[in-house]
TrEMBL record:
Keywords: Membrane, Transmembrane, Transmembrane helix
Source organism: Rahnella inusitata
Presence of the UniProt keyword Transmembrane helix in the record: yes
Top-rank lineage group of the source organism: Bacteria
Regions that span the bilayer: 68-92, 104-122, 128-145, 152-172, 184-203, 235-254, 293-311, 317-335
Cross-referenced Pfam families: EpsG
Descriptive protein name: EpsG family protein
Amino acid sequence: MLIYIILLLVLVVNCCFENNKKLFNFSIFILFIVAALRSDDVDRDYKTYISIYEYLINGDSYTIEPTFILLTYISHVITGSYFFIFVIYAALALHYKSKYIRYFSPYICLSLLIYYSNFYFVHELTQIRIGVASAIGFYSLKYIIDGRKNKFIAFVLVATLFHFSMIILLVSLMFDTKRISNKFIFSSFLLIIISYSIIILNFNPLEILRYIPISVLQEKLTIYKYQTANGMVEAVNVFSALQVIHIGVLIVVFCNANKFDDNPSMVLLCKLYSLSPISLALLSSLPAFAIRISELFSVADIIVLPILALYCKQRKIARFAVVLLAVLVFFMNLYHNEIVKGYSI
């Protein structure tokens, strides 16, 4: 675990030299090397990807995104192994995550710290497909801000080639980027209340999805139901520390909503951010599905917290508080959630 802690300390120190692009780019490169060269026993999914690689190379069929199939054959031709798959996924994920941060964040080193503490282990060291997909998808939000919605749609469709779930990011087109209205605030809190009420009443709203005739959706639902029924995934803790933090941040954002009227990036990202705690509670009857969707929307976290710090009168204190929060989440993910094991090459 030592290498993870050393990386954390480096990123914390970087925050003392905020917006230093050289430090930022160097840190991105180091994170790429760590992700690309890890051994197969660092995370939970590496060996699964190796198995999928072997299925495909042996001519067996396997339902997975076309980009993974393409990279499997490219890696096999170039290296005769699966190694190139992990290099390309790490390169694409870190490239687009860095572009996402540089475009939206007022404090790029602070955003990088938040990303590392709460997303790097899940996305770049474990769920590499959603890692690339979310990076491309959230970077493409810039095209909504710039008024180029067709380009945004094109990027999201590319992102879905890395992970099908990214199609849900098209919900961004429904949001007004001018302001966070009282109607939106009321609707968000109402949905949170309804979601927790559904949990108490033991009602499963996902049964409605059975009637949507989309084969990929039905296949995923079948898998998630099987995993849930057979105890292959743990039940969602809708009162977890992260969920409480998300709802707490949401309350702070909504209480200061009028301050962000001149910041379309913050408005759009906050609206997406609000869907994270809602989806976790609303979809909790299928844990794997709920966690995946909630984690997807929570990528907005990387930008929302630094922008909140920017709007605080005591900016240095606010940034310090965000650093402490990131460090807390880091140790929680590493030692409580045990997302990854000790690092090795």
